[in-house]
Amino acid sequence: MKLKQIFFTVAISAVTALAVIWGYGTYVKNSNTYAGQQEGIMPANYKYAGLLDGGTPPGATIDFTAPAQAATPAVVHIKTKTNAKQVSNNLSKKQPNNPFSDLFDDDMFNQLFGNRGRGVIPEQRASGSGVIISDDGYIVTNNHVVENADEINVTLSNKKTYKAKVIGTDPSYDLAVIKVEAAGLPFLLYGNSDDLKVGQWVLAIGYPLNLETTVTAGIISAKARSLGLNKDKNGDPASGVESFIQTDAAVNMGNSGGALINTDGRLIGVNSAIASPTGYYSGYSYAIPVNIVKKVVDDLIKFGTVQRGFLGVRFVNASDITEDDKKRQGIPATAEGIYVTDVPTDGGAYEAGIRKGDILTKVNGADISNGAEMQGLISRQKPGDKIPISYIRNGSEKTALVTLKNKAGNYDIVKADAVLETLGAELTTLDAKKAREYGVTGGVIVKKINEGAINDQTRMKDGFIILKVNDKEVKTVDEMKATVGVNKSITISGFYPGYDGVYEYPLSLDDN
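Now predict its structure.
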């Protein structure tokens, strides 16, 4: 009897346990609404992504070998050399005027009398990447890869090496075009960066850390990023153009100028920067969209300089304005787009009727929410192009047809300055801090002397600071261009930092 009671008790317990488990499972199945998860119901974002009805998620079966194989031969290793240079240390170590400057080359004087007051920047070598964009040897890379280089060598994935020459550069975009003399080269086809979507697979190809060709994969994590890195040739960050593609594909030093491609093997961007506290990859990398690259490359090859159209507004992102400031300035709390803070009267936007306080919402029909998006769209246009700009004023949406101007405020096509090409020198504007140190109000630095009139007719050295042209002060490169003008004979006056006295160099700019 005791055994029967035990057995009966165990049986009842087992049945009860099974019933509880079944009942709990049924309850959970029918009433689990945590985070909106309900059986048979799919959120709209999955529907629009094409993931309903048991469909395969886009890219789930993608094999990266085909795009990598197609693109790798068209990505090159760029190695640069910058020659050693003598520079002055500071003004406190001024030396007397070279008494034998008319008899000996400066190098001979230094050998005889020493090199006091001057320092030497040693020879520098660096490397980066580039992308072949035509079978006859045009290559796009970053400006910072080839900037100031005295020698550029390009090595293909098959180990063939070529000397390269610079066709054109633009620091505002951080892009450059170089060329090797070759034919029948592999090259990358352009994709369309406007079609890119966050979450899309991409591959980065380049030569990081002096390694051989390296391919990494990741996804697009954001679009139209601005980092404040790019500056124009005078060091002005306001003229920099940034609308980066952000990815989590691993990119390191040496990847600069390399390719960002889609899974079709098409070029969608040029890798340019990384976000890192150490200088090495820390999770995010940034590429210049190919639709910007195409425009810059075409202009550099055709004109030698970028034909950049300017809208003619100063602005802030509406999303960056605090609620208190919005109330104080009468800006709608829900305003999205670009808030115009000023409209110069000589710009295209003013002529089209856009005014301070307007909120720009579209450029050429494309929605914009921040300045990087607007820059990315405007930077593809040239002076004289007419584009529709949509904006909100007093709660009403309006559209203006704006004719873009160049930086000088007209519609002319800007060509590489023929006069400065004749001079044969790379010139930059002396920054205000250095000018104060030297006790001058401004000037133009002869950064590098190439083949041309200066090299042929004078013994001017790199580092010379121009103060006057034909006895007229010049404080910027633009002022020098305007002063030189169409003169066939000029006299350049200036000084060498670290040395007393003013030097004058007469030049003939005759075509012969």
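The chain is about 20% helix and 30% strand.
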